[in-house]
Write a structure and sequence with these properties.
Blueprint: H1 11-17, H2 24-45, H3 49-68, H4 77-92, H5 103-110, H6 121-130, H7 133-140, H8 143-154, H9 159-166, H10 173-194, H11 199-214, H12 220-228, H13 230-244, H14 246-255, H15 259-281, E1 296-297, E2 304-305, H16 308-323, E3 346-348, E4 357-359, H17 375-378, E5 397-405, E6 411-416, E7 419-424, E8 433-437, E9 445-449, E10 455-457, E11 463-466, E12 469-472, E13 475-477, E14 487-492, E15 501-505, E16 517-520, E17 534-539, E18 550-553
Antiparallel strand pairs: 1-2, 3-4, 5-8, 5-18, 6-7, 7-17, 8-9, 9-14, 10-13, 11-12, 12-17, 14-15, 16-17
Length: 576
């Protein structure tokens, strides 16, 4: 489909491209397509905008690593990425990054049920996933049906957009979605038989489907069984939710945490985009063009807005949409009794015509699960989303991993204050680096530390001479959207078939770093570098010294994966 009439590639086609060594362009396309949604959900888990950006980057990096190792999604990227966000946040909860998570998310994690072998937050999260009938059924669907169902009933995307994701025509989307609905229902009923508990459960399983369809209990014995059996009672609740409110039920089943906050934020973004498109269509020719230097960007979508007043209205709207929705056990909210009348809060997102109104639809009472805390009650003055002043938006993370020195195989690059050094590889987060794509100069990336969020910088370094070898000092600092003095390319080393790279600075005849590369300050053979904090600088490729090149190895976020090269590198040996 990608070549027909210049249509953008579907998500499945993008997945196929990601295994190519030079796949940075495809990574960037995938990143742009899903970043807004992923950041929206990441902020529901994080304390502040900066950590939401970090969580978003790590989720993309993990997903990319998984796909390049031969696993992961083929077409259903959106629900997969959102799941990776939640799982990554759960991993953070057992590390020093726990303080970066929102207090509400931490409390929710603490209330997750325990079981055999659930000695970590991530393990308890997986146990909760395994207990969800709807989630198991959804994941068993073909991925194209997962995509159609998620984007139509949860995201509410128009048929044309969903068709592009599927690589299908706009008219085929409704058929895909309807088949997915029927498939989900049938899979849920089949899963009940496969996971029956006691003999009584198996006896009453056939009645569950009939009860959902008719709304009437079959027998008093069945009622008594429901009172005694939480498994069947929970299954009935999930099936009823699925039948009556598929969107909220599916969102709650897949996300588990913060589904109402997520869907409210997505509704708000959709309203902003619709208003912006309408205003753009009526803008006078030759009007000011919004761009990254003059425009305020909405926190979740990067959508350019020209007016500071409008931007403030957007933030207020997102705040109302998120904070006015108390987060219930499954993220859909805690409600009054269904017999009571509940006011539906509304908010005009853009004051200028055309007005866009976001309505929070009340949902049914939620089944009993670990209760989320109300964001409104816990932090009434907390910002509703990343503010306009948060760090500049950069490109997609195309690789994440350690830089292990080829000459000293046990030493990895890490920051030390504002300098760059090497120490023993021990798996600490500050030894994880990310390559961040840079549109203006293809083949180059920013080199950002996963722990600090800062980039390696050689722009202000002074040229020095040590042992007749020239070098340029390195520092770490805020990543610059311009890329000046911070761009690197990974060049496969041709002198040895070991998969190592020369990590080259930007080639520029007029700059002191031209033709320089990352390497050890004490690179020459026979010299013993310091045991700790060995200096790393920019220097030339003297005598092809192995101390002046690096292995780019991906971290193991779970089962071990083969290392893959940073996007833009062309070495076949280093890719899976």
């Amino acid at each position: 489909m990608a070549d027909d009439h210049h249509q953008p590639p579907s998500d499945a086609e993008l997945t196929g491209f990601l295994t190519d060594p030079g796949s940075s362009d495809w990574v960037e396309k995938l990143h742009r397509r899903h970043r807004s949604a992923v950041l929206s959900y990441a902020y529901a888990c994080c304390r502040d905008p900066r950590t939401a950006e970090d969580l978003t980057s790590e989720a993309f990096a993990r997903a990319l690593q998984t796909v390049r190792s031969g696993s992961g999604p083929k077409a259903a990227w959106r629900p997969y990425l959102l799941t990776v966000v939640r799982r990554t946040a759960a991993d953070w909860a057992d590390t020093t990054r726990r303080s970066d998570l929102s207090p509400e998310f931490q409390r929710w994690l603490a209330q997750l049920p325990e079981g055999p072998g659930t000695d970590s937050s991530a393990a308890r999260m997986l146990l909760l996933e395994e207990g969800s009938l709807v989630l198991r059924a959804f994941r068993s669907l073909p991925e194209r049906r997962q995509t159609a169902l998620w984007h139509t009933v949860v995201e509410g995307d128009p048929a044309r957009s969903v068709g592009l994701l599927l690589g299908a025509g706009e008219g085929d989307v409704a058929t895909f979605a309807e088949r997915a609905r029927e498939g989900l229902r049938e899979t849920c009923l089949a899963a009940l038989d496969d996971h029956a508990g006691s003999d009584a459960c198996r006896r009453y399983r056939p009645m569950l489907g009939a009860v959902v369809r008719t709304g009437r209990r079959s027998t008093e014995d069945f009622d008594r069984h429901l009172v005694k059996c939480p498994r069947c009672r929970g299954a009935l609740t999930e099936l009823t939710d699925l039948d009556e409110e598929l969107g909220p039920a599916l969102s709650a089943a897949v996300l588990l945490w913060g589904s109402r906050a997520y869907t409210a934020a997505r509704m708000t973004e959709a309203g902003v985009r619709a208003a912006g498109a309408s205003r753009a269509s009526t803008a006078p020719e030759g009007g000011a063009r919004p761009d990254g230097r003059t425009a305020w960007r909405s926190w979740a979508g990067g959508f350019p807005l020209r007016s500071g007043a409008v931007a403030g209205g957007i933030v207020a709207a997102i705040g109302l949409a998120v904070l006015a929705l108390p987060l219930g056990p499954d993220g859909r909210g805690t409600e009054r009794s269904s017999t009571q009348t509940q006011a539906v809060p509304t908010r005009t997102v853009v004051a200028e015509p055309p007005p866009v109104t976001v309505t929070a639809r009340p949902s049914r009472p939620a089944p009993s699960r670990p209760a989320e805390q109300s964001t409104a009650a816990a932090s009434p003055t907390a910002p509703a989303g990343p503010a306009a002043s948060h760090r500049a938006r950069l490109g997609a993370v195309t690789w994440a991993g350690t830089l292990r020195n080829a000459g000293f195989g046990t030493q990895c690059v890490e920051p030390s204050g504002t300098t760059v050094v090497q120490n023993s590889c021990d798996g600490r987060r500050d030894q994880i680096w990310e390559t961040v794509s840079f549109d203006q100069n293809r083949g180059y990336s920013l080199l950002r530390n996963a722990a600090t969020g800062e980039c390696v910088d050689y722009g202000g370094g002074q040229r020095r001479v040590r042992q007749n070898a020239e070098n340029l000092a390195l520092t770490t600092g805020p990543c610059r959207p311009s890329g000046a003095g911070q761009l690197f390319r990974f060049e496969p080393f041709q002198g040895a078939d070991d998969g190592s790279f020369l990590v080259r600075a930007e080639a520029d005849d007029g700059k002191p770093w031209d033709e320089m590369q990352l390497g050890m300050l004490d690179w020459w053979e026979g010299n013993t570098p310091p045991a700790t904090n060995a200096g790393v600088v920019l220097t030339y490729n003297y005598y092809n010294s192995p101390r002046l090149r690096y292995f780019a190895q991906e971290p193991t976020y779970g089962p071990a994966h083969a290392a893959s090269a940073p996007a833009g590198a062309t070495a076949v040996a280093a890719t899976p």
